[in-house]
Task: inverse folding
DNA sequence: TTGAAAGCGCTAACAG
DNA sequence: CTGTTAGCGCTTTCAA
């Protein structure tokens, strides 16, 4: 930077201003500095800037895995929203190992990230405390909680489960199945699903919980087990559209009519839901919006605007298409 | 840090060593410092460390989008590999706008990232030059090139296309279709696909190119158009398994037998290929390995090991299952 | 094995 | 509108 200053015949501060607050310089000086920057191929060291200003313009996000279509879109939207605000995204993955989260947070805090996006609300008390102490904006996502660490954007997984059960029961089904992952949010949807079934006096639901990461090719065999165990089963709620599509394929293979012999309800409204045949009924959960909204909340907080609402319930919607 | 030093009754340098090179301290001093760190809840500022040492322990990756299952797994593997080596991943997305890449690179270079992973090999000469000047390890991925900027891990998209055509022709198909995205790598596969068809004296292939991001629900309608245009069409090569699955669904809807009436070949060997019915034949391209390998190459270069091979051709394999 | 001192490259008051 | 002057919190010779 001092090279540029010398080349342009101005002070260090002026060069800094030319880069960060160009409106505060006269047109001539600005041009002078810009020319020098160009000539020297100068690339400002943002690291040094961060240190001096204690703003890193980096936000970190932690998700189970970006390989799951459901989270990848959240990360996609988040990255884009942040990029528009001049922020960059540091990515952390827990691979569904809850214990890994704390280590990642620590590392990110060490980097002095300006904000943090977490998946879920199951953080340990010690982690919660650490985060509060850090004093940076934090957004928890993909779930609800009455006492968020700081901000929250999500929806009620329990209610999703209940609504799913309601939708299936409304259509006359009495024996319901649930295929999900052994993971916090899936478990809450299961609770809601069970509650919904119980409220209508149905027998307990059939359950298959897949060890995460729940790959699509696990779902068919699990569904087969479930169907063998319970011949009266006439409807399944799958915890994402990928798993649901796998069940649809399994039904095709068996020659089972959908929804005649088996109704299939998905989650997420992924593109596959509109591409499948029959078109998948699904619970839409606005996974992209979660990322976009989290990004906006962070940006406005970092931009010093007065806080909007700290808890955003994005809700969800049961979309009835052809598979139920 | 000076608080810790005071608390432990040692110098700044000693605290620094306790954190970065504990083996160079006596057991007692080390214990002393660690206790102080614990008591004060001290979190070292890695940013300051980066500035002083000019090593950031951050690697950046640029992909079109992480929403595409094909890249998400590369990013997943890369993140994990880097994490094991103590590095973190800064994520950039171009949304398939080639022009965005240069801006992202600039921003990342400004952060003084220790390494960079790029998707594809279509970087402009000016960007190539900039990257070489930066003097950091760079890995280009998902394609081949005889003069990589620095390192490369990929496979030949042209050959993938040719092999796909060969596979289909071998099975007796004479009128072939290609469904892909309007994007560099897809286009190369198309060239290979055409070359393969031409080599066997076939008529030119039917082509549908979808504007990226190519969502799964675009594929069905495109396939329908293609089939209407060319009734003799008996096989399609889809540029990823998601699109292929959409075509499979479309065939189910029409009551077309697969592969009797229409053969469908995918790309990627995503979980959906094993979950679909019929099981999808596909071109496996080791998308996870691309990330893992890129990460390893970076780590070993950053660890000062002498360079292994700088160009890694991971190859590919046509996996014949039931859909062709 | 430990400490002192000099930066790393930038930002941010404060003056002028 | 521009320049001066201190640091930001660490790492890293070099000495002791």
Result:
């Amino acid at each position: 930077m001092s090279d540029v200053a010398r080349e342009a015949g101005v002070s260090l501060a002026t060069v800094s201003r030319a880069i960060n607050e160009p409106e505060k310089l006269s047109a001539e000086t600005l041009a002078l500095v810009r020319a020098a920057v160009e000539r020297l191929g100068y690339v400002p060291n943002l690291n040094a800037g961060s240190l001096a200003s204690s703003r890193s313009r980096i936000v970190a996000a932690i998700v189970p895995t970006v390989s799951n279509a459901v989270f990848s879109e959240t990360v996609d939207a988040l990255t884009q929203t942040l990029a528009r605000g001049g922020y960059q995204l540091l990515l952390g993955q827990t691979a569904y190992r809850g214990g890994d989260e704390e280590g990642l947070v620590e590392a990110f805090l060490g980097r002095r990230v300006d904000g943090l996006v977490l998946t879920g609300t199951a953080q340990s008390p010690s982690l919660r405390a650490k985060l509060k102490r850090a004093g940076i904006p934090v957004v928890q996502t993909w779930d609800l909680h009455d006492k968020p660490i700081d901000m929250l954007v999500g929806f009620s997984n329990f209610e999703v489960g209940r609504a799913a059960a309601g939708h299936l029961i409304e259509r006359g089904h009495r024996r319901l199945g649930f295929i999900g992952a052994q993971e916090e949010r899936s478990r809450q949807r299961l609770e809601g699903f069970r509650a919904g079934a119980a409220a209508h006096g149905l027998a307990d639901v059939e359950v298959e919980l897949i060890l995460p990461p729940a790959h699509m090719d696990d779902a068919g065999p699990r569904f087969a087990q479930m169907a063998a165990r319970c011949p009266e089963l006439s409807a399944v709620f799958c915890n994402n559209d990928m798993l649901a599509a796998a069940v649809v394929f399994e039904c095709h293979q068996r020659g089972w009519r959908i929804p005649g012999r088996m109704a299939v309800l998905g989650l997420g409204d992924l593109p596959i839901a509109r591409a499948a045949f029959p078109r998948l009924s699904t619970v839409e959960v606005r996974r992209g919006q979660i990322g976009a909204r989290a990004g906006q909340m962070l940006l406005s907080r970092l931009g010093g605007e007065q806080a909007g609402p700290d808890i955003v319930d994005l809700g969800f919607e049961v979309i009835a298409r052809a598979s139920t």
